[in-house]
Amino acid sequence: MKIRTFPEDFIVEEYLTVDIKSDAEFGLFTFKKKGWSTFDLISSLSTRLKVPKNEISIAGIKDRHAVTTSYMSIRREFANKMIDVINRNEQIIPNVDFSFIGFIEKQIKSESIDYNKFSIVVRSIDDKQIPLILDRVEIVKNQGVPNYFDDQRFGSARHQQGFVAKSLIKKDFISGVNLLFMTSKYDRKDVKKSKIDALNFILNNDNKIDYQQTIKKLPPELKKFFITIYEEEMKKKSHEIKERDIIFFKAFKSMDRRYLILLFHAYQSYLFNLLLSKILVKLNKGNNFYYLKGEVQQYLFPEFLNDDLFNFISNILLPIPSKNLDTEIYSDSHIFMGENKFEFNKILQDILFEIEKSEKINFKELDARFLGINIKSQKRKAYLIPKDFKIYNFEDDDFFKGKKKVRMEFILNKGSYATMIIKGIFLQGKFGKAEKISF
User: N or C: more exposed end of the chain, with fewer CB within 10 A?
Assistant: First the structure.
């Protein structure tokens, strides 16, 4: 099974509700992109139109390897530049189509999104897999899947060595810098070299590097950090440990605020996934699960939920670990499943304590205000049920000869991952097929 063989195999459209007002302050645009990461796009747009990056606000961060239609807003004085270019039918950025919608009163945020609509082609399917796939379609269509954050959330940790945010909340800036510039198997050769050179300069005072080439090849989200270090002439000061930490702190604060938030969200998402999987194991003990290896952690999918468990788990919101963690789900949290009675608030608190112990942190430490960022206390649905799910007929795969392909369409609420629906149906990810286990 393969997804994203071609960008056109993975189509995403954002939907949101806004009030258009001709005299409002911010221009609203849609942009349809292919082959661009969101941060690369913002950086290129900023350079092309001479718009400060912090004046470009996006609703959702979408995958590079897809065809995605999203929204952005820009303050009127800069939006007018963009409108002029669009009206002249000039290309602003290759493989990106922009359209002007109108003016709105506030910059859009991720909270502005109502839902996302997906159209996904899955390829390289064996004929013999089709009966199981169709069985899983019925289960997932009706019962959904655990609402895990998927691997895309953990791009900053795909080197599998840890989370930058965890180092930052411990004020271990050297560890944070190491993780920030650590290479992974996904980096292109030139990007990998630029990260290594930058880190050697930052930590080892290696002034033999080609500064301009290093800056040119670094990912956009790391450029400002490295420039800040360079401008502070760290090579003259690095023998002073306290002074070095001050410079590192200044460099982290100089980064794009959106990327800093993503670093913290990645660690919070990891903790939420741990919480959700442990709750499912506790409440579904003795039943089968499918174990699927992910980028930084495992994903557990119950084979099937009985009615009692489904009615409970599909209707609760779980806390995303933060400094203001709210563990009270219900005033009366006693739940009955068959002959078993559970006191859910106690289960939740016990599991959270277990995670704190294993991670060697206190959730009260999950505070990024020292970097000018407020990590909000939020809750997230434990289960994800697709809306308007549709599966088309299996067809001969025109790319993987001798295999089948199939198109699926569905709608998900903002913040949920279509790839989790695919994993739940096909019981397979990029690290292989799921293994059936029980606890």
Answer: C
